[in-house]
Predict the 3D structure of the following.
Amino acid sequence: MPRPIEALVHIDALAHNLARARAASPDARVWAVVKANAYGHGIERAFDGLRGADGFALLDLAEAERIRARGWRGPVLLLEGAFEARDLELCSRLNLWHVVHCNEQIDWLAAHKTHQPHRVFLKLNSGMNRLGFAPTAYRSAWARLNALPQVDEISLMTHFSDADGARGIAHQVDVFEAATRDLPGERSLANSAAILRHRLRSDWVRAGIMGYGSAPDFPTHDIAHWGLRPTMTLRSRLIGTQSLQAGDTVGYGSSFTAEAPLAVGVVACGYADGYPRHCGTGTPVLVNGVRTRTVGRVSMDMLAVDLTPIPGAAIGSEVTLWGCGPGEARLPIDEVAHAAGTIGYELMCALAQRVPVRIAVA
Ligand SMILES: Cc1ncc(COP(=O)(O)O)c(C=O)c1O
């Protein structure tokens, strides 16, 4: 009998969330961002739910190969472009579009022998100061690319640092518009937070986290507010129970002390499964679909939950760590991430290898 923990990927929810991205940006084509193994969901599994996208955006050449191996002939975009000159050979062979964010990448293109000219997305650093050409260098980079026989189409892009927060996007949109004024080519600006929070016209939007059922601006808004559905469930079972007396403690470090008699369940899930150790007492969890809280520290393979609201719970009872519980019960991954002081992105990407993943039956 294997450990009872498993993750489920909800293909229908991926398709639903993609449709939300489309509805929010009706004039744009939608990149489904599937980097980091589709935010931990598995590229192949996510592909089945996101195949209605106009293209797939990712980082790794190996992941691009996996999308092509799935039979996808449409656009695939490398969001960070080539990491070294010889990557361009695979770009040619697999017909990958790629970001160009620095002069070295233009040098590599200029030296690249290809029969098929490349489509590139020229990235502007409009204020995030991660990747991209400074506004003052952008036009000369465009002119260099435009002169290359290895390039047939140049699109223009940037990335927002604060689309989910108070600072917003206006300052970066202004920089982008000034730097790209009169330049031909398609535009791509918005990530999930910009798609949902800022109505901004562009040719391509880049939907990442919203596709995976996490609100980019939680706790300001949750997935119910944005009409999104969980795409990953992490679930397990109770493998033990304890009856505590007042003064008894739970787990390493005795960080939780019962104030009165308390029934506690022990769940087969720990930080070695990808459940964050930073989740302290009080993190929401579902037992048999009923909401309760964790108690004490998360250990490598186990965590403990308060069984007070679930008097019938026993060894074998179903525990939902995040995602979809039995019936209509839901526990958004964002709530668990918030309790750990992080974001839904990190939890889904950190799902551990040892957790078996299945496609949920709709
Ligand atoms: C360049 C770029 N575009 C789009 C995305 C998707 O962002 P999100 O998952 O917030 O939608 C990312 C993710 O970090 C990114 O790096």
